[in-house]
Amino acid sequence: IKETHNNHMNRDAQMKAILHQKLIETGERERLQERIRAKFLECGWKDQLQAHCRAVIQEKGVEQVNVDTLVAELTPKARALVPDSFKEELLQRVRTFLAQQVRP
After folding, report:
1. Which of 37, 49, 51, 81 lies 20 to 30 Å (CA to CA) from residue 73?
2. What pLDDT, on a 0 to 100 scale, did the predictor assign at position 104?
3. What does DSSP assign to residue 65?
4. CATH superfamily of 29-102
5. This prediction's pTM
């Protein structure tokens, strides 16, 4: 069973690498990144995250905060600030891209 699990993990890693390469080759990765940047700007994601960052530094004190602390504090907030509808939109765009790549 462990060997099968490792085979699945290896296959998943290979599929991710192939998908990533195809996204780059076709320019879809750049289009997705542009969409993400535009959406984050539109919904105020960066501003909200900057405000949270300042609050964390103020709360803990600048001497007590390092990059690792900020990453640990900001990552859950950053993920939570992304609207679920946008996550679904991106997922659908990747699924559509995959379907187009599989077609002969």
Report:
1. 37
2. 59
3. -
4. ENY2/SUS1 (1.10.246.140)
5. 0.74
